[in-house]
Every structure is written in structure tokens, then in C-alpha cells.
Amino acid sequence: MKIPIFAANWKMNHGPSDAREFMRSFLARYARHSDRTVAIFPSALAFHAVRESLDSRSDVLCGVQNIHFEDKGAFTGETSASMARDAGAKLALIGHSERRHVFGETDEEAGKKCAAAVRAGLAPMLCVGEKLEQRERGETDEVVVRQLTAGMAMLEAGQMSGLTVAYEPVWAIGTGKTATPADAAATHAVIRRYLRERAGERGSAIPILYGGSVNKGNAAQLLAAADVGGLLVGGASLDADGWSSIVCT
Ligand code: PGA
Q1: Residue 168 is among the residues annotated as catalytic for this protein
Q2: Residue 59 burial by Cβ neighbours in a 10 Å radius (0-12, 13-18, 19+)
Q3: 17 pLDDT higher than 70
Q4: pLDDT at 34 over 70
Q5: Rounded-to-5 percentages of helix, strand, coil across the chain
Q6: CB atoms within 10 A of CB 140
Q7: Three-class SS of residue 191?
Q8: What is the DSSP code string of 32-51?
Q9: Is position 156 annotated as part of the catalytic site?
Q10: DSSP for residue 157
Q11: Got the DSSP string for 194-249?
Q12: In this structure, which residue's CA is closest to atom 2 in ligand 1?
């Protein structure tokens, strides 16, 4: 049975006070479900507030939105994977399109970050996706395969078990334009083929999430598309009521 993953990427929203309020309201609406996984990626500063709110709710996982690829050192403003793990993170988003396109993170850095996450015992959620102009030039498959190849370059077969991939077409992020379930399924099939070639049987089990303007109105349809193993949600995850409807899809 497919256990869908619902992941909330809060980006630079919700400080500790808002995060506490969100969690109070969300947990009151969302009872423990064994047939789905819920993960929240708060900002680094709100991380502790979210973890504290989860006290007895080990069913809801916490992750960080970014890590540095070095384990420690003179990297002002950065957080290492081992620090995130120590703070209670189970997952790390790697190579989100905003990291790539706003902060200039390279494919190679995403690869080093995936390796750093695994070294520290964090499960990497590797984000891939094409920009609009790449899609218009028919380069979608090539772009996602290039990002996967670099992102997974330093992982050995035995390290793939915790990996999750999130397909997030850049033109659909925060724009209100969602890929159709058929578009999502087509790219997920390309990603699945790559994962099987790269990781054999293990590659068949790596969940592939869809992200990009997911909301409570389109979540069910996207989740029903072939090989969509979950949803990575930005804007629509910020309100506890809307987010609980999505996770109860
Ligand atoms: P969005 O963001 O749901 O606001 O489009 C998704 C993401 O960037 O992960």
C-alpha cells in the first residue's frame, strides 16, 4: 500500500510564536493517522517551537529547509546536518528551487548536501524541477535527470533508502499554476526510470512527491496521479485549517 507523504515547506514564514499557534491549531484538527506521513519544514528559528509542540506526536516529522554541506566551521549564517539532527530534525530539503535560483546553489552543492545529510542521519528530500523556459524548449526530462544525477552523485546504493525526491516545476511554485496530474505523472515516470537505473530495486521504493501550487482543491487529483507518492506544499501549508484538509486528503 502506498503511504503518502504530506510535507509542508513554510519557507521564510512563521516565527516561533506563529509556529506554536499553528501547531496548536493543526494538532487539534489532525489526529494520528497510520496510513500517511506528515512532515513540517519550519524556518530554522521556528524549528524548536515546532518540535516542542510535537511533544507526544512522534507521528509528525520535522525537517529543515536547508543545510550546509560541511559538518562545522566558519560558515556564518549556516546550519550543518548534524546540528539539525541534534535539534530533532529527521529530514532535510535539499536543492529547493529557491535555493538554486534565488541563492545560486549549484547541482554539485545539492549533491554534497545530500551526502552531508546522509552522513548525519538525516533523510534528504531532493527537489528537482525545470524552469518555464526549459519546459518550453522541451528540456524538462534532461533538467530533472541532470539534477538527480548530481544530487545523488555521492550516495552509495545502501544510502538510498532514506531518500525522497520532490518534483517541483519552477513555473508552478507560488504561481497558482499547477501541473496537470498528467504532466506530473509524465515527469514522475522519467524520475522513476532514472531512480531504477541508478539504484535498482531500491529505486522503485524511493517516494516521489509533487510540489507547486498544491492546495486543498487540487491535492486529491494530484495525489491520485501515477507515481505521485506525496505532496510538498508551500503557500497552502501556512494556514492550519487548510493544511489539515490537505493532509486528510
Ligand atoms: P507552493 O510552494 O506550494 O507555494 O507553490 C511549493 C514549494 O516551493 O515547495
Answers
A1: yes
A2: middle
A3: yes
A4: yes
A5: 45, 15, 40
A6: 20
A7: helix
A8: --TT-EEEEE--GGGHHHHH
A9: no
A10: G
A11: HHHHHHTHHHHHS-EEEESS--TTTHHHHHHSTT--EEEESGGGSSHHHHHHHHT-
A12: 234
- Which of 6, 9, 41, 209 is the pocket-test mutation for ligand 1 (most atoms within 8 Å of CB)? 9
> What pLDDT is recorded for position 161?
85
How far apart are the two ends of the chain, measured CA to CA in Å? 16
Distance (Å, whole) CA 126 – CA 198: 15
What CATH number is attached to the domain comprising 69?
Answer: 3.20.20.70
Tens digit of pLDDT for each residue in 185-244? 999 999 999 999 999 999 999 999 999 999 999 999 999 999 999 999 999 999 999 999
- Where b means 16+ CB within 10 Å and e means fewer, 61-75 reads bbbbbbbbbeeeeee
Residue 144 structural domain: 5-247
Kindly calculate the radius of gyration of the chain based on its CA atoms and give it in whole angstroms. 17
**Amino acid occupying residue 27:** L
Domain count, the chain: 1
Atom of ligand 1 lying closest to residue 98 CA: 8
Q: How far apart are CA 226 and CA 182, in angstroms?
A: 8
The answer to whether 8 and 41 have CB atoms below 8 angstroms apart is yes
Cell of 61: 516529522
